[in-house]
């Protein structure tokens, strides 16, 4: 599931080629670039992104509006600790439950990418659960829950977008995931809402799930990108006392898909 590469930021061309080469062999790609300074991180990844794929303007900002209208029209959004913010995972120090980013966006690209300006010393790992491993665990521990997750349409909506898929579906035999507890539509059927609670509890309580989770700790200059519908991701809680003590930039991108190709598919 996880691959790690080291980048030389003095060569954006080689950096983007290394990312594209590794992308085909993993679901989660950890990119190490320790030579980057904090004030260089955003510019470096912004520069190489067009050579990696097609960026999508899907950023959200809590300052724009409520959960139904936070789309900013920008590419990058801040995942930045702000003291006192408890109800927005992008700005709190709380653990973030496992989810997919594109759960409510009908045309979400194939990947999310986060690059690290700085990270809290204690905690703050980005966590991943492989979709195939999740299916194996469900099949062993709760096959009836697996069947319901495969069969029940689960509507998600936020920021004016809506997407309806089962939590687990299959494409060419591989599981594809669509899940965010907090974005399941309030107008979902009673069956779907009950399933929402049951699956959320399973992810929180299963010892096998806990063992299968892979943590990735980013340092300044590093990035992580992942195939959004092939894994669930979340975050470990962290300790921080100052604003921006944990600060990452995040975007959505079709890695390996370029505008000319996207226009013809």
Quickly describe the structure:
The chain is α+β, with helices and mostly antiparallel strands and 265 residues long.
Task: Measure the end-to-end span.
Answer: 27 Å
Question: What CATH first level of the largest domain would be assigned?
Answer: Alpha Beta
- Which regions have little confidence, pLDDT < 50, spanning 5+ residues? 261-265
CATH architecture of the largest domain: 4-Layer Sandwich
**Count of spatially separate domains:** 2
Query: Describe the biggest sheet?
Result: 7 strands, mixed
- The Rg value, from CA coordinates, equals 18 Å
Helix-strand pattern: EHEHEEEEEHHEEEEHHEEEEH
- Helical coverage, percent range: 25-40%
β-strand amount: 25-35%
CATH homologous superfamily identity of the largest domain: Clavaminate synthase-like
Q: How many H/I helical runs?
A: 7
The backbone outline, from C-alpha atoms, is globular
CATH topology of the largest domain: Double-stranded beta-helix
How many β strands by DSSP?
Answer: 15
The secondary structure category is: alpha+beta
Mean pLDDT across residues: 94
